[in-house]
């Protein structure tokens, strides 16, 4: 302080101080211009959809709140209109999180061919949207282990999982739906979330955890609490978030969920690691086909920490429980709204399982059921946009457009799913649309392209390319097992007087089936 006082009393010192202040201010302006203003200016030639907060939003946030409110209320309309207006090109939209550049499917081939996988960063954008540092998800995102175990061992072991999934689905359906011949009117959200949580947990670790009520409650609520934390913290300046997060009730719930995950899986992880150290000496024969096993085999370095492994198990519920539950609920709503599909589906399921049992071969032969689920998903997706990536490097497209490093890109999967270019009568539900397409072609590759888990320009629900959702094959199998079990055993319908499915609930970029809807289940008597 004394040195500063001397400088200020000295005329030369005052000049030096003013000069230093000018340098600091200049550098600050240059930094803000480089970090915030220049990227906005580079993207300014790309059309903007929805309310445009203007370039000052990049610096001061002026107009940003209004643009976000507009997207939260009108996101579906904004994206559909902008997609049709800018077909074959791209546009910008301010979402609840950040501005994204929405690419047409026409860019898919170019991206697959010319853009390295490492440039399309999945985790940075996901961490920002889900507030990774405060939801503990950065522990998962710091590694690719969760991606690799879904891409390889999970998919490769699907044949071993069919029977356990069927057993688990039957277990929860028996306990949640009364066993007499009377009709049972049940909240379908509560039923399906429990069935999907149970079957997902059976894949994670086996029957012990899948029957544990404390863990199943965590599996059902964890995704919701992550979203609440992220949405709450988004309203505060980044510098304030570390001080606010610990006091949020939803953050305390996340910490409780992590504690449950540690208690549920810690012993299993320790047991498998000890078996690994002994060279996998499984007394009962072959090693288990579950996520605990695959993670222990894949984990290296810090990923072997028990807390990290527990967080990965929680992330699996975030990635899979509610997305699969929502898809299953949508399919049930469509079955109630279009009951003419019930008997053909039931006949196919009965015939195939009589011949092949509950096996992977049987699942691959359920082509009508696969088509029904895919058509339901086409019209009722879980999000408005997929393929959400943050560019690790600048990308220049063949049309001359340059997207700078740090740009968040996405694709309008819902708008594409109703594009008449790809689908005849796109707003009409046709449960066997994809079954008919399969039957009409002699090409095996074209037939496979009609399957639920297939990806392409006309089906962006799972993303595309090398970074497409690695768990989609398990999800498709799980949903088939659950729906097949229900269709064989029950007649389903809406409550008396209702014939149309409920309207979906749109919240920004999220799409949700109405959680209040009830369905009538009546046990079939053959």
Automatic annotation (TrEMBL):
Keywords: Heme, Iron, Membrane, Metal-binding, Monooxygenase, Oxidoreductase, Transmembrane, Transmembrane helix
Coiled-coil parts of chain: none
Keyword Repeat: no
SUPFAM superfamilies assigned to the protein according to its UniProt record, in alphabetical order: Cytochrome P450
GO cellular-component term (any): membrane
Topology versus the membrane: Single-pass membrane protein
Presence of keyword Transmembrane helix: yes
UniProt-annotated binding residues for heme: 469
Cofactor: heme
Location(s), subcellular: Membrane
Entry's transmembrane regions: 20-38
Protein family per UniProt: Belongs to the cytochrome P450 family.
Protein name per Swiss-Prot or TrEMBL: Ent-kaurene oxidase-like protein
Organism whose genome encodes this protein: Hapsidospora chrysogenum (strain ATCC 11550 / CBS 779.69 / DSM 880 / IAM 14645 / JCM 23072 / IMI 49137)
Organism lineage string: Eukaryota, Fungi, Dikarya, Ascomycota, Pezizomycotina
